[in-house]
Amino acid sequence: MTTAIDVLLIGHMTADLVPGGRMLGGTVAYAAPTFAAFGHRVGIVTSAAANEPLLDQLRLYSELIVRPSEQSLTYENVYSEGGRQQYVRATASPIALSDVPDEWMSAPYVHLGPLAGEIDPLEMALGFPAATIMLTMQGLMRRWEAGGLVKFRSWLDEDALKQIDIVIYSEEDVHQFPQLTNEMRGVCQHLVVTNGRNGGTYYHCGESMRYDSLAVEPHDLTGAGDVFAAALLGSLPAVGGDVANAVRLAGKLAAYSVTRAGLNSAPTAEEIALELRNLNED
Question: Which segments of the chain have a pLDDT < 50?
Answer without folding.
Answer: none
